[in-house]
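Sorry, can you check?
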Amino acid sequence: MSITELFCNVDDFCKEFEPKWQRYQLENGLRKRRRKSSLTLSEVMTIIIYFHQSNYRTFKSYYTKYVRRHLQDEFPGLVSYSWFIRLMAQAFVPLLMFLLSQRGQCTGISFIDSTSIKVCHNRRINRHKVFSGLAARGKTTMGWFFGFKLHLVVNDRGEILAFQLTPGNIDDRDPVQTLSKDLIGKLFADKGYISKALQEELLGNGLFLITGVRKNMKNQLMSMSDKLLLRKRSIIETINDQLKNISQIEHSRHCSFVNFLLNLFAGLIAYCLRPKKPSIRTDLLMPASVP
């Protein structure tokens, strides 16, 4: 997506959201000064999101070497890098609301998984202070890490339906009830989500949780279409890989928790606005009928 198309999408959202947001902000009865910035809210959000579509690895290099040099005509009111960092905090709530507005629709076929978001190297855990009391040690199939877990639910089109951020030591099954409250049909997951109690709770809400079985478990009867869809669960692993390596939601250079969340929201938005997403053709998964 070009930066012009991105700005149009963000600006249309801001025109509708910003008046409502200012109307419902808490007031203490005192007159507040609202200093007008040379950059509008939609311009700040566009610059933040567009970073996750660029090839730059650090936001400072992106802003100083690309935005300030090549996007001066698109953003005439550009400010210094240090001042823009201050403006970014004002886009926290609008970015979150814009992300929620970009979620896809449930198609009856959903996939759930979690991915680790490391905030520092394991050797520096004891010296780490930015996320002290927030991040936690966790373990995945790739080993131990220090940071958070991003829990995602996507549909067969690769669209994000729900997401939740938790400390790294939270069990993958804990957020499932919250993430799946608006889902219908079938939810496919890996063996880490095996739980008879959770399966019964979701079934009571009309949602079927389908997972693989461990070696020490008895085989379960499953239709051929469910077996084929369970094999296609790698779609959400591909999405997690793109979020980390293309949208850059994971790095160890954060200076504050707010900055971390801004980077996460913008990375998820950049993925949601991508025209081509990982998807599966459910019509080809059904076995051909025998005449």
Notes: The chain has a mean pLDDT of 88.
